[in-house]
């Protein structure tokens, strides 16, 4: 399977690409700076590195050509516009349509809610309130990006994770429309594990599950 990975050099992108390679897949790693990729990954014979900006629609579209699925592990980086995820979603969706690619995996935060989520606990409401207070514009951008994806004609899966850590890959975690609190977390390696599982096995198509320990 060939995966176009946006945000491949980030803290979740790096374990995702490694896991994909370990499972025998190919990856097109879309990054702003190729030097941020580990050398062995950058030079791997099943990795194609594309340097570009997700705000550049043509660069995004070219990276998607020939892919079987698109994976976004993008976040808000220093210096990026506040609406970078909305722009990225728009450009990815257009690129997928042009390339005839239907499968999309998108990593988002648990602060993005859906109508299928259970009623929030007091801790969950406090967590959402804190997110809005500290990064209201960024949370709004994440929500808009997910809305674009949900309204698209793609076979999408939005994986929503709580606080991400740099812990090891366990391969065991809860998935579904979960009731999360401020203490819930997931390692980036396991977020990558779940994204890859959904990409390969077609799990949770047109759903937005959470994943958490």
UniProtKB/TrEMBL annotation:
Highest rank taxon of the organism: Archaea
Q: Any idea where the NAD(P)-binding domain is?
A: 7-199
Q: Which SUPFAM superfamilies match?
A: NAD(P)-binding Rossmann-fold domains (SSF51735)
Q: Which residues form a coiled coil?
A: none
Q: Which residues form the signal peptide?
A: none
Its recorded name reads: NAD(P)-dependent oxidoreductase
The organism's lineage?
Answer: Archaea, Methanobacteriati, Methanobacteriota, Stenosarchaea group, Halobacteria
């Amino acid at each position: 399977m060939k995966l176009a990975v946006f945000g491949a050099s980030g803290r979740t992108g790096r374990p995702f690409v490694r896991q994909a390679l370990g499972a025998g897949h190919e990856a097109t790693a879309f990054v702003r700076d190729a030097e941020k990729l580990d050398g062995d990954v950058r030079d791997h014979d099943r990795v194609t590195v594309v340097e570009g900006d997700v705000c550049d629609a043509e660069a995004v579209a070219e990276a998607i050509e020939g892919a079987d699925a698109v994976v976004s592990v993008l976040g808000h980086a220093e210096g990026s516009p506040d609406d970078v995820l909305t722009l990225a979603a728009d450009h990815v969706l257009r690129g997928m349509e042009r390339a005839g690619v239907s499968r999309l995996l998108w990593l988002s935060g648990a602060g993005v809610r859906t109508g299928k989520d259970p009623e929030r606990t007091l801790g969950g409401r406090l967590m959402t309130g804190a997110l809005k207070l500290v990064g209201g514009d960024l949370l709004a951008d994440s929500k808009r990006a997910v809305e674009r994806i949900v309204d698209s004609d793609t076979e999408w899966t939005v994986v929503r994770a709580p606080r991400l850590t740099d812990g090891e890959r366990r391969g065991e975690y809860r998935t579904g429309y979960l009731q999360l609190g401020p203490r819930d977390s997931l390692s980036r390696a396991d977020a990558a594990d779940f994204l890859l599982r959904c990409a390969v096995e077609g799990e949770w198509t047109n759903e937005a599950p959470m994943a958490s320990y």
